[in-house]
Amino acid sequence: MVKIKALSILIGLVLAVFLAPNVFAQEENFGVCVTGCKLFITDVDVKVGSKTDKNLQDGESISDEAAPGDTVQFSIKVYNNFTDDDDVEIEDVTITVTIEGIDDDDDLEEETNEFDIKADSDEKETLEFEIPLEVDEDTFNVLIEVEGDSDNGSQEVKMELDLEVQKEDDEVRFLRNSLAPSEVQCGRSVQLSTSVINTGSNEQEDSVLEVSNADLGVSFKETFDLSDDPFDDDSKFSKTFAFTVPEDVPAGVYPITTKVTFDDGKETETETADLVVATCEALEEEVKEEEATEEEVVVVQPTVQPTVPTGGVIAQPVTAPSLPATEEKSLFQSTGFLAALVAGEVLLVIIAIVIVVAVVRKRS
Predict the structure, then answer these.
(1) For the CA atoms of the chain, what is the radius of gyration?
(2) Count of domains observed in the chain
């Protein structure tokens, strides 16, 4: 009787040794077998934003809620349950993760490249999603599908999880805020294109968008409402502002500030776009002319003094050639005066003759 019990125990131990790996492996399959049942999902970790939920099983909910714009990362380990003795490799394995209906009723789907898994081995792959900014507050089904081929036929296993998206009550984000061009010279026109979206659960009335830079004289203001329906065009506001860089602005980097105020003035979001202003050509020419004027030097020639050479001979100063002397005559020596004098004398003689003739006739 004792021998029979001992033999039974021995047989049980032998069976346990040979069957244990398969038993333990089955316990590690957190997925649901679809075909073949030799391809297992042995570990699933989900990272939402900065928090990670580990060792998830089929049908569970991801503990951390996602928000619009969050990154969600799925790390999935899959296992080939064929033994070393079986020596069956599962080939062309792919992992597909689908978040159903999250993108305006459309699915988000990511898939790994194909890979192979040797018998009694595992592989780990990571897939990443970005939650859309335009999304409803809801719980979405996540489907994980793993497929592969082996000499024993197709292998497929799947798992389903729940992902909840939760929004802030009041939240507005920038979709775009950019300058065109981002580098200019003075006197040139610039355009700032900006767009905001309501990613919160509440409607935003009388929201205010302001664009400013004091140095460039930029100042714009717009008031608008934002719908709480993420798929409504009125949940977004877009505007392009144009301005001209002043002629006299110095070269440098000028931050253009765009601020949106919402939630009855209690909340703000700010974006900054840097505008690079290069040196203006007109200013460059003016500066060059000023520098050239400052660099002009007046040269004064010194008076040359006679020098005594070392040989003792005195150098004679150089004299300019003399011009012919001009003879100066007084009034009494001039030709005109002499002619007038002669004429006067003749006239006096004639007058004297006339007087004499008149006297003689009178006496007669």
Answers:
(1) 55
(2) 2
Residues in the chain: 364
The pLDDT value given to residue 308: 44
Whichever domain contains 61, its CATH number is 2.70.50.60
pLDDT for 26 equals 45
Rounded-to-integer distance, Cα 183 and Cα 178, Å:
12
Indicate if the pLDDT at residue 81 is higher than 80: yes
- One domain for residues 118 and 63: yes
Whether 196 and 145 map to the same domain: the answer is: no
Express each pLDDT in 228-267 by its tens digit: 999 999 999 999 999 999 988 999 999 999 999 999 999 9
**pLDDT digits over 13-58, tens only?**
544 544 444 444 444 799 999 999 999 999 999 999 999 999 999 9
Is position 286 within any domain?
no
Say if CB 122 and CB 78 are below 8 A apart.
Answer: yes
163-174 pLDDT per residue, tens: 999 999 999 999
Omega cis (within 30) before 181:
yes
User: Does the residue 61 lie in any domain?
Assistant: yes
Enclosing domain of residue 63: 33-165
The reply to whether 339 falls in a domain is no
CA dist., res. 211 & res. 260, Å (int): 9
Among 228, 249, 281, give the residue marking a domain's end: 281
> Residue 320 has what pLDDT?
46
The C-alpha atoms of residue 268 and residue 228 are separated, in whole angstroms, by 17
Burial grade of 94 (CB within 10 A; 0-12, 13-18, 19 or more): middle
Residue 301 lies in a domain: no
DSSP 8-state code for residue 166 = -
Q: Which of 258, 281, 304 is the last residue of a domain?
A: 281
